[in-house]
Amino acid sequence: MSASATGIPGNYQLIDLSYIELLSNGDKAFEKEIVQIFIEQIPQDLALMKAHFAAGDFNQLKQSTHYMLPSISIFGLENRLKVELEALEALESAYKVLKRHLETVTKVCNKAREEAITLLHSYA
After folding, report:
1. Which residues contact 115 (CB under 8 A, 6 or more apart)?
2. What is the radius of gyration, based on Cα positions, of the chain?
3. Do residues 84 and 101 make contact, with C-beta atoms less than 8 angstroms apart?
4. What CATH number does residue 58 fall under?
5. Could you give the CA distance from residue 15 to residue 76 in angstroms, rounded to a whole number?
6. For 75, which DSSP code?
7. CB–CB of 53/61 below 8 Å?
8. Which segments of the chain have a pLDDT < 50?
9. How many domains does the chain have?
10. Looking at the chain, which terminus has fewer C-beta neighbours within 10 angstroms, N or C?
């Protein structure tokens, strides 16, 4: 379900509010809080993943990726990033492939964060 179909203005290419709306049962303050947490947490999660990758600490990269899954899932991003996230958790791909996956996760999450900021401003 798109955000515009829920009465919340906006045209979102990435984020899907279906799960948040199900959890909130119409509680807009709860929805707003979840959106705010996502906006604040995603840059920290991505920075941590990048740092672990750059340091070659792949066990920590794997843990950071796993830790990030709930944030990604609540906004419906898990299907879009399924291949990349599974590869980063499994660590079975070549270095260049893992780097490309991390870049894709970063790009998608940053765009989703921009959409979440727009969404946040739509709450009264």
Report:
1. 10, 12, 13, 14, 15
2. 15
3. yes
4. 1.20.120
5. 6
6. T
7. yes
8. 1-9
9. 1
10. C
**Nearest of 52, 101, 42, 100 to residue 74 by alpha carbon:** 42
Place of tokens 């996502």: 38
Q: Tell me, what DSSP letter sits at residue 22?
A: H
C-alpha–C-alpha distance, residues 15 and 32, integer Å: 14
Tokens for 84, please give them: 């990349």
**In which domain, by residue range, is 114 found?**
3-122
Provide, for the chain, the percentages of residues in helix, strand and coil under a 3-state DSSP scheme, each rounded to the nearest 5. Answer: 75, 0, 25
Please answer whether residues 31 and 24 qualify as being in contact, where contact means their C-beta atoms are separated by less than 8 angstroms.
yes
Q: Is the Cβ–Cβ distance between 93 and 65 less than 8 Å?
A: no
d(CA 32, CA 36): 6
Q: Which of 45, 41, 52 lies closest to 91 in space, CA to CA?
A: 52
pLDDT in tens, 77-111: 998 999 999 999 888 889 999 999 999 999 999 99
Q: 8 to each of 22, 102, 120, how far by Cα in Å?
A: 14, 31, 10
